[in-house]
Amino acid sequence: MFTDVLSALHDFGHLEHAVSKLNALYNTFSYDAQIFSRxxxxxxxxxxxxxxxxxxxxxxxxxxxGRSDLELSAAGERLVFEFKLARTDSESGRLLIQAVQQLxxxxxxKTLPMMATLSYVIVFSQxxxxxxxxxxxxxxxxxxxxxxxx
Length: 150
Hints:
The protein is of the alpha+beta class. 33% of the residues lie in helices and 34% in strands. The protein has 4 helices and 6 strands. The chain has a 6-stranded mixed beta sheet with strand order 1-2-3-4-5-6, sandwiched between helices. Strand 5 and strand 6 form a beta hairpin.
C-alpha cells in the first residue's frame, strides 16, 4: 500500500489518489483512537506504514535550521515530508502556506549526501478527520497540489 502511495505522490497530477490511499490508512483507526489529536501521531502512522513496507524512513531529521518531520532517501532522491494539523478545515490553507515557507526557509533535505529533493506538505484536519491539503515542491517550485492549485 505504501509503495503505491509513493508512486502516486510522484505522479503530481494524481495527488488525489495518494490522498485517497492515505485517508484510507487513517480511517482504519477507530474514531475514539485520538489519532487526530496530535501532529506527531499522524506522522508516526505514516512512518509505520512506510517501515512495514520496507521503506527506510527517518523521523525528525536534524539540519542546521530545524528538523524535517520525515525523510525518505532512495535511488539518489530524497523525499521530505512536512505535516501540519489544522483544528478546522478553514485554517488548512494558512497552515499549508506556513509549511511551504518552513520547508524553503529552513532548507529541509539540503544535507549530505546531496540528492535531488522533493518535498511534500500534508495538512490534516481535526474537524473532518482526514487529509484536506497536500502539495509537492521541488525547491520553491510547486509541482502539484490537492485540491487544485492552492
